[in-house]
């Protein structure tokens, strides 16, 4: 054997000798060598060389050619010694014409993992292909002796699961939803609204041209610019384009350090880790890398691929929208799904984002709010401010915006929950999801129990309960994925992003001053909390409502677009719980802060969030106790929804002349000490 490792079995801390010899060629062999040192104290040795004989030949005719003056010079060579998995341990220069043998001694590290290892010796000479030889040896654990310290470290680690391809979908969802947050939206909209420039050198191409919301009102150009720019922002950043030739660009902005923690990968190579995510995505969507024609690209999410097969003979139209074949499937909806959840809008509306802007719009129109005195009476927005024409356009565009009643019906259609404004008529939904809230809270409850078992290193956490709960939530979400599903969440997000930007304007700080020392994550939040204190809408910070919308949207998107109906592997559910642990525990904490209900305790809370808010806002006093918590065990969902108490609101006072106003609407009394001072009559002529 050209390479031989001796001994074949060695303990940790021992020494392995590697011997290499060039193979014999014909019947002749040249022996020579030179010493070479090896790391760890190993030394390579070679035997002395012997001179080589020269041969002469006679040409035809008998005349002898002169003999050569000496041996033919051979090029020098190098032997590279390597332990597979460890690296290069030595390099031996070989004189011209030497054939070995050569020896290298390698000191086995005392902490080397016991296993079978492969030694390689590569003989390379200029102008010839290298000769690669290998041999194996086994490293075993060294037993403890009487002189060794008896300090053995034992560590118990959390049980792991094999990676699954749907993890790449969750990374894409986080990239898409984080790109639609207020901070990237503000970075996008500020240059457009304040300087008339594009937001940056690289603007993502939108999936289609924005609509032209022309309005027959004067002075609304700034508002129209805000509306169109917000629509372009959503067109450019909503969802992911599923095509084979866009895999690398899809995960270009991924936070690999954060993803490594979620994937439970220890110190990965960044490039290799990102490529592994891209390969998972290719396998998950069934993409063929380098597909030449994206128009016929078969890549799609597994869940959407199942729906595509159900539609049977329906093909794709020539163009998305109304082309030659109006009965076809819209390719944009299949290959470019938009990752938006109406759940985000529900929690932000429940946190009074929309009500805050509507209250300012009423004051802008000189309409008094409900109550004897308007808490926004001091709001006077002069026409020299840039906010003035934007609010004017916002008021003029009222008939084109979604109403609270339309959003409430869609909340009920998607999730079986609603947020009715005061004075709105009762809902009469045609289709509702009363079981969704119970299924979603059960999923969060089982995930919390999974985390307790997963943190215990003596227990292997079972992912089957989480998997079954994921299937239930996925079924309910897809049942409500019809009619206004794609368009109403889009419009609601567009309007609420505009409302956030309006509240974040510097002019609003003069009318709605907030608490300076509170570190709000986004600039619009302190305005909403100030409005809630002025109007008496509750003391819970809008930060909790924002977290509920943000975390809830990401969780529901991962359930909605995952093909959980076909998943039977509990590792997928375990990976889902570990990946979204931050969002699950953040949602549970914010829900407890807002409603007082703990989703980690049994029995699982199934009361509507609005009932919890009404109970917490109900005044405490003699004869007026707080409303008891309502559960789904006491009444049917439809009856409970009809009988849900609303927060008591004072009746609005009509705008009557001063002489006809009721006493409650009369001007405030004089300061103390001035009530008894009579007013002198005014003299005539003065």
Mean pLDDT across all amino acids: 77
Give, in spatial order, the strands making up the sheet with the most strands: 2-10-9-6-7
Radius of gyration: 38 Å
Instruction: Indicate the proportion of strand residues.
Output: 5-15%
Rounded to the nearest angstrom, the distance between the terminal CA atoms is 127 Å
The helix content is: 25-40%
The global form is elongated
Q: Count of DSSP helices?
A: 22
| Biggest sheet character | 5 strands, mixed
- Parts with pLDDT < 50 across at least 5 consecutive residues: 25-72, 320-324, 620-680
What key attributes describe this structure?
single chain, 686 residues, alpha+beta, 5-stranded mixed sheet, 3-stranded antiparallel sheet, 22 helices
């Amino acid at each position: 054997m050209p390479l031989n490792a001796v001994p074949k079995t060695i303990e940790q801390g021992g020494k392995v000798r590697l011997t290499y010899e060039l193979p014999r060629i014909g019947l002749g062999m040249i022996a020579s060598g030179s010493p070479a040192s090896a790391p760890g104290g190993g030394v390579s040795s070679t035997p002395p060389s012997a001179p080589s004989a020269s041969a002469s030949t006679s040409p035809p005719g008998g005349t002898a050619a002169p003999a050569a003056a000496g041996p033919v010079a051979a090029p020098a060579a190098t032997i590279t010694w390597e332990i597979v998995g460890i690296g290069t341990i030595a390099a031996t220069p070989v004189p011209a014409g030497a054939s070995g043998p050569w020896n290298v001694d390698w000191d086995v590290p005392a902490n080397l993992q016991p296993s079978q290892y492969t030694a390689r010796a590569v003989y390379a000479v200029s102008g010839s292909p290298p000769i690669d030889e290998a041999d194996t040896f086994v490293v075993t654990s060294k037993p403890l002796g009487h002189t060794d310290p008896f300090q053995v470290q034992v560590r118990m680690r959390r049980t792991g699961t094999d990676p699954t391809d749907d993890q790449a979908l969750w990374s894409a969802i986080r990239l898409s939803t984080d790109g639609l947050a207020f901070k990237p939206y503000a970075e996008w909209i500020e240059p457009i609204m304040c300087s008339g420039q594009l937001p940056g050198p690289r603007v993502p191409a939108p999936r289609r041209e924005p609509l032209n919301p022309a309005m027959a009102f004067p002075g609304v150009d700034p508002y129209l610019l805000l509306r169109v720019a917000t629509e372009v922002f959503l067109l450019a950043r909503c969802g992911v384009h599923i095509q084979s030739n866009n895999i690398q660009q899809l995960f270009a902005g991924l936070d690999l350090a954060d993803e490594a923690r979620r994937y439970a990968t220890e110190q990965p190579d960044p490039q290799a880790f990102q490529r592994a995510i891209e390969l998972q995505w290719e396998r998950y969507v069934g993409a063929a890398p380098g597909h030449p024609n994206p128009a016929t690209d078969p890549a799609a999410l597994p869940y959407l691929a199942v729906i595509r097969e159900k539609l049977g003979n329906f093909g794709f139209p020539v163009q998305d929208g109304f082309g030659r074949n109006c009965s076809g499937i819209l390719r944009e909806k299949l290959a470019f799904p938009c990752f938006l959840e109406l759940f985000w809008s529900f929690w932000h509306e429940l946190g009074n984002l929309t009500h805050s802007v509507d209250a300012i719009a009423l004051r802008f129109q000189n309409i008094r709010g409900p109550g004897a005195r308007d808490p926004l009476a001091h709001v006077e927005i002069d026409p020299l401010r840039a906010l003035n024409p934007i609010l004017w356009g916002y008021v003029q565009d009222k008939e084109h915006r979604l109403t609270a009643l339309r959003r409430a019906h869609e909340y009920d259609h998607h999730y079986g929950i609603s947020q009715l404004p005061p004075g709105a008529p009762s809902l009469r939904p045609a289709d509702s999801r009363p079981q969704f809230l119970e299924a979603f809270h059960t999923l969060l409850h089982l995930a919390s129990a999974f985390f307790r078992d997963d943190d215990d290193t003596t227990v292997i956490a079972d992912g089957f309960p989480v998997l079954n709960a994921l299937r239930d939530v996925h079924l309910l979400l897809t049942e409500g994925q019809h009619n206004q599903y794609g368009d109403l969440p889009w419009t609601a997000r567009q309007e609420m992003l505009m409302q956030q930007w309006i509240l974040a304007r510097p002019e609003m700080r003069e009318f709605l001053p907030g608490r300076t020392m509170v570190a709000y994550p986004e600039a619009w939040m302190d305005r909403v909390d100030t409005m809630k204190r002025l109007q008496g809408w509750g003391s819970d910070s809008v930060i909790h409502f924002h977290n509920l919308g943000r975390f809830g949207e990401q969780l529901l998107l991962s359930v909605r677009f995952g093909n959980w109906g076909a998943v039977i592997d509990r590792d997928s559910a375990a990976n889902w719980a570990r990946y979204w642990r931050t969002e699950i525990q953040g949602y549970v904490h914010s829900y407890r802060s807002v409603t007082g209900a703990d989703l980690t305790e049994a029995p699982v809370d199934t009361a509507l969030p609005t009932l919890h808010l009404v109970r917490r806002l109900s005044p405490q006093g003699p004869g007026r106790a707080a409303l008891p918590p309502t559960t789904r065990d006491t009444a049917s969902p439809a009856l409970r929804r009809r009988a849900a108490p609303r927060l008591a609101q004072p009746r609005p006072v009509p705008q009557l002349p001063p002489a006809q106003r009721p006493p409650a609407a009369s001007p405030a009394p004089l300061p103390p000490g001035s009530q008894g001072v009579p007013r002198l009559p005014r003299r005539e002529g003065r």
